[in-house]
Write a structure and sequence with these properties.
By secondary structure, chain A is α/β, with parallel strands linked by helices. Chain A has 13 helices and twelve strands. Helices cover 34% and strands 24% of the residues of chain A. Chain A has an eight-stranded mixed beta sheet with strand order 6-7-8-3-9-10-12-11, sandwiched between helices. A four-stranded antiparallel beta sheet of chain A has the order 2-1-4-5. The longest helix of chain A is centred in the middle third of the chain and has 18 residues, at 189-206. The chains are: A alpha/beta, B alpha/beta, C mainly alpha. The interface between A and B is large, with 47 and 46 residues.
Chain lengths: 326, 341, 288
């Protein structure tokens, strides 16, 4: 078994706000193998986006800090690198795309230039080579008329095209890992399908590993190989995608699936609700974070915090109720 | 068609929209001197029966939000008519418009932005009643009743929107919409901004309220899963026009318009075992400033032929309560004769 | 949630110290401003007579008898400086309140009434095109010289900026979903404006008011210095500096103390305004 491409160990990221310390990520560990697509699923407040920012060392410096853990990539701990070293890696060996392409693209810079800039910085290519390579990337992401569109500014592109430009920028230097934070959430459904298709194609071509962060179970089902479910800053379940959907073990995972209305199901069936709210992350949580909302919770759940345990090969879950059987 | 649907069809519709069009003036040309219009909504006709849920489905630029605002008379149509229980409200103003407001209300997409951040929940919920002088002398009981209707505890009345969660805020918006006991509620992407677990709570609440109070919903959404769950009838919009309308079951099991098929195919399903035809639709929604000639969908349509780029198809009936605007007929061949819907 | 640990309550003194640490500008500027107001209000009780001329004691340097020295007419510079604060602060507050009130009214109309907007804004543009001091001088020359005249003359040039600010806020507020919701709920125009649009203008206006106050104080001093402001007998700082212009080398204290007082007050008000803005803006964005 080759070592994983990315190995996150016991990551803890806290936000220091006027109202207290928010434990956005509270002891998260996972691995990403080379070339695989890992999905991170969770709702707001689960810590999934903060995880991505922590790995990329893109947290807002004044208010957030990763206070513990290690992020191992190619034998280096990303959390221990200095600014220069991490800048070398960002955009080059690990790339990230975000939810809102308009805010991630420089509105005052031509689109092709933004891609070429990445290439020039990381590969030292000269202007001509960088431009040629950037045009090639625009072709690759199916931007029609790539040579002409190279000179356009971001506002002349639609949402889906901007996202493709972002993908082109991210993959320009052939990174080993791409982190995609809700890449299609802001897009129309047909455009989402296009963008996901491009992602899958490009990944197959270059063998890039992808960490896909999303709240949409449908996207996960269609594009990911393995899935992590996060809740209140912790991983509560991990499995291969088929297993997760066929035999979800954690009550939260089951709740999410039952609460999602599907276009191919019978109409009018009452959706199963998950009562209550996500707990506040600024107060230390005693016991299982999901216990107040869990239909299977018993007193052990409120006293002790469950740890991840394997219930089947490749299937981990942090739940006392799931442990003792379905 | 189901019994309920037949019963509804027999009654006169509650809301009748005929040929409604909305143009927005826009400046074009090098110096911005020439004026033209964008047709945000183009010749839309539909009906809404008492207690029925009609979903408007479409992607950005299709005009569903604009249509929602037109039907609320927040903006006025450039052409066409809107009738509520037979009365023409298209250009109503003054007392007639206020009477209309009592019967058609709205819930917004962004729960936070639709609540005035400086007002307490009690003020927000009571305002419509106050506007019409219907607030009782001791309002707290009525307010508690409205809050209870949407599952909020009476203590919530004292809170400000920023103290509430997303789901609570949306419930507050629903309570406000219900305060005047309307007959129709326009829900503009009412659950799109909510987390899945909260979305389920709100959807269940909306269904329960509909059953209990006999409300009709005009539910605007882009999420087919939500639409399937709540709709009686579905209308698909593309670039300002309705391209297909019918029973929810028919639309999802046997869609006729290529765009409807593409939409259903594109929506990801939360089940890796489901194998579907994943032909992905090419291209983008064209800009409203430069709509394609003829059928607006033809540049992206896998079945387009020459007539499609010349003549705009009209909605024609294909089955009971099912109309499609496409030059292909039910056999998938050229359409020569058909009834106008 | 029963299993969540409760937070400990901080003591009042601790909370106060935390407030001071987090809002240094607000507290610093506010304390100085408050002290100045106290001094100004108590002026007749704590200092001597600012008007009495004692020619025998002209241009005396600071001494135990005259803490700030005397001016060219033998008047007590300390008494005049402290009394000058009354003029300056009164002008500052009055101008700030009037400019904000007028600007708010005009701005609300300009932003809400479609047809009134462009002509009102062009009028405001015209007013802004005239240099403030010239406009103030011109207005004063049309009226009898007095402190009230000075207030009016300084208020008018300050109005256009307030109108611009209010109008831009109104234009944004009008598009908010909660305003649409209010319209859909049958709200009439007066409720829309008063309950839904007006409150958004208040925090920026409060901040703007502090800046206007500082600017008005400076402007009054400038006008008085030019001889176009408060009547010369009134002990305003500008007048003091004007009448002591010739004695800069011989008796610098006659200019230094009013000048320093002016600088300190204006600085304190500006810093207070900055602190207020920092507190009100992120508060609003955090709340929302």
């Amino acid at each position: 078994m080759s070592p994983p491409l990315l190995s996150v160990k016991d990551l803890k990221t806290h936000f220091f706000t006027a109202d207290g310390v928010v434990r956005a990520v509270d002891g998260l560990s996972f691995d990403v193998a080379a070339g695989e697509t890992l999905g991170i699923v969770g709702e707001s407040g689960s810590g999934k986006s903060v995880t991505a920012l922590s790995v990329m060392r893109l947290l807002p410096q004044r208010s957030a800090r990763t206070i513990a853990g290690a992020v191992l990539f190619s034998g280096m701990d990303l959390l221990k690198l200095d600014e220069r070293a991490i800048r070398d890696i960002r955009g080059n060996r690990i790339a990230m795309i975000f939810q809102e392409p308009m805010t991630a693209l420089n509105p005052l810079m031509r689109v092709g230039e933004q891609i070429a800039e990445v290439l020039r910085i990381h590969t030292g290519a000269n202007r001509r080579k960088a431009r040629a390579a950037a045009e090639a990337m625009l072709h690759l992401v199916r931007i029609p008329d790539a040579e002409k569109r190279y000179d356009d500014y971001p506002h002349r592109f639609s949402g889906g095209m901007r996202q493709r430009v972002m993908i082109a920028m991210a993959l320009a230097c052939d990174p080993r890992l791409l982190i995609a934070d809700e890449p299609t959430t802001a897009l129309d459904v047909t455009v989402q399908a296009q963008v996901l298709k491009i992602l899958v194609q490009l990944k197959a071509r270059a063998g890039t590993a992808i960490v896909l962060i999303t709240h949409d179970l449908g996207v996960v089902a269609e594009t990911c190989q393995r899935v992590i479910v996060m809740y209140a800053g912790r991983k509560i379940e991990e499995a291969e995608v088929a297993t997760l959907f066929a035999r979800p073990a954690h009550p939260y995972t089951r709740g999410l699936m039952a609460a999602t209305p599907r276009a191919d199901s019978e109409a009018g069936k009452r959706l199963v609700e998950i009562p209550g709210l996500v707990p506040s992350l600024s107060e230390p949580i005693v016991g299982c974070a999901f216990a107040p909302r869990c239909p299977l919770a018993y007193d052990r759940c409120r006293r002790e915090s469950p740890v991840l345990s394997q219930i089947a090969p490749g299937h981990e879950v942090a739940c006392f109720a799931a442990d003792s059987g379905p | 068609m189901s019994e309920i649907a037949q019963h509804r069809a027999a009654e006169a519709p509650l809301l009748e929209v005929g040929g409604v069009t909305k143009h927005f003036p826009v400046r074009t040309g090098a110096l911005g001197l020439s004026r033209s219009v964008i047709k945000a909504v183009d010749d839309v006709s539909l009906t809404l029966a008492r207690g029925e849920t009609l979903c408007l489905v479409g992607e950005s630029g299709c005009g569903k939000s604009t249509l929602g605002k037109l039907l609320l008379r927040l903006i006025e149509p450039t052409a066409g008519t809107i009738r509520l229980e037979g009365a023409d409200v298209t250009h109503a103003s003054g007392a007639a418009l206020r009477a209309f407001r009592r019967r058609v209300q709205i819930i917004f997409q962004d729960p936070l932005a639709s609540l005035n951040p400086r007002l307490r929940a009690s003020t927000i919920v009571a305002e419509p009643l106050d506007n019409f002088g219907l607030l009782p002398a001791r309002p707290s009981e009525k307010i508690a009743e409205l809050l209870g209707l949407v599952g909020l505890r009476s203590e919530t009345a004292r809170k400000y929107p920023f103290e509430l969660s997303g789901g609570q805020r949306q419930r507050l918006g629903i309570a406000r919409a219900l305060s005047l006991s309307p007959q129709i509620i326009v829900a503009d992407e009412a659950v799109s901004a909510l987390d899945v677990s909260v979305q389920a709570q709100i959807l269940n609440l909306l269904v329960e309220l509909r059953d209990r109070l006999g409300l009709a919903y005009l539910f605007i959404s882009h999420d087919l899963g939500v639409v399937r769950h709540i709709a009686h009838r579905v209308a698909i919009m593309y670039l300002g026009r309705i391209v297909e309308v019918g029973d929810s079951r028919t639309i999802f099991s046997a869609p006729r318009h290529p765009y409807t098929e593409a939409l259903i195919a594109a929506a990801p399903v939360a089940d890796p075992r489901v194998r579907r035809d994943r032909t992905v639709l090419d291209g983008e929604v064209p800009s409203l400033r430069n709509p394609p000639k003829g059928c607006a969908f033809h540049p992206r349509c896998p079945f387009a032929f020459d007539r499609c780029s010349v003549e705009t198809p009209q909605l024609r009936q294909r089955g009971p309560g099912h109309s499609v605007a496409c030059h292909l007929d039910s056999a998938g061949t050229l359409d020569s004769t058909a009834d106008v819907a | 949630m029963s299993h969540v640990l409760p937070l400990a309550r901080a003591s009042t003194a601790h909370q106060a110290w935390r407030f001071i640490r987090r809002n240094p500008s607000l507290v610093g500027g506010g304390v100085v401003l408050f002290a100045a107001v106290l001094l100004a209000v108590a002026a007749p009780c704590i200092t001597g007579d600012p008007l009495t001329m004692v020619p025998a004691q002209r241009l005396r340097p600071p001494s135990p008898a005259y803490l700030f020295g005397t001016d060219s007419f033998g008047r007590d510079v300390l008494a005049r400086t402290v009394h000058g604060a009354r003029i300056s602060l009164a002008v500052g507050f009055l101008v700030a309140i009037s400019a904000v009130a007028c600007g708010l009214a005009i701005g609300l109309v300009a932003g809400s009434v479609r047809l009134a907007g462009p002509p009102l804004m062009r009028l405001m543009d015209a007013l802004m095109a005239i240099p403030t001091i010239l406009l103030a001088v011109a207005l004063i020359s049309l009226m009898q010289a007095s402190v009230a005249t000075v207030v009016i003359a300084i208020t008018i040039p300050e109005i256009p900026r307030v109108v611009r600010l209010v109008r831009s806020i109104v234009l944004v507020a009008r598009e908010q979903p909660y305003v649409e919701a209010a319209i859909a709920g049958g709200a009439r125009w007066h409720r829309l404006v008063l309950r839904h649009i007006l409150p958004s203008t208040i925090p920026p206006l409060i901040v703007q008011a502090t800046y206007i106050c500082a600017s008005a104080i400076l402007l009054e001093a400038t006008l008085s210095f030019l001889g176009a402001g408060s009547p010369p007998e009134i002990p305003s700082w500008g007048n003091m500096i004007a009448s002591s212009r010739l004695y800069l080398e011989r008796a610098p204290w006659t200019i230094f103390y009013p000048g320093a007082a002016l600088a300190v007050i204006v600085l304190a008000i500006n810093i207070f305004g900055d602190g207020l803005r920092d507190r009100l803006d992120p508060r609003l964005s955090r709340r929302m």
